[in-house]
Amino acid sequence: MQESAHALFDMAMHDPLAIFGLLLIGAFVVLFTHIQFKMRGIGYKTYPLFARGYDWTLPAEYLKVRRKQGWSPWPAYAMWPCLVLGIVALVAGLFRLFD
Question: Whole-angstrom Cα distance, residue 17 to residue 92?
Fold first, then answer.
């Protein structure tokens, strides 16, 4: 177990870009889940992230009802840059890792 932790630590020290990409993708999942739970709370029918495919209309619906509910718009705006930058950082980090 300690060898695995040491290997992960070495990878993080050698290439922090891949770890940063994974953290950004994780932030996307957290923001999506936040939006999903908020929408479920008001009766909007949602599904888990990959159960029936991604509900592309969920962030737009969130933005439509957020003012009436008093919610902040930042989760819907921040989730897309997190996903895109996370994928780019992960791919760049993995290519750099195999150098």
Answer: 7
Residue ranges of domains in the chain: 2-97
d(CA 64, CA 23): 28
Residue 75's CB is within 10 A of a number of other CB atoms, namely 19
Q: What is the pLDDT of residues 40-75, one digit of tens each?
A: 889 887 766 555 656 677 888 999 999 999 999 999
If you ran DSSP here, which 8-state letter would residue 18 be given? H
List, in order, residues 6 or more apart from 15 with CB less than 8 Å away.
93, 96, 97
Q: At what angle do helices 16-41 and 58-69 cross, to 10 degrees?
A: 60
Distance from the first to the final alpha carbon of the chain:
26
Cα 61 from Cα 41, distance rounded (Å): 13
Q: What is the pTM of this model?
A: 0.81
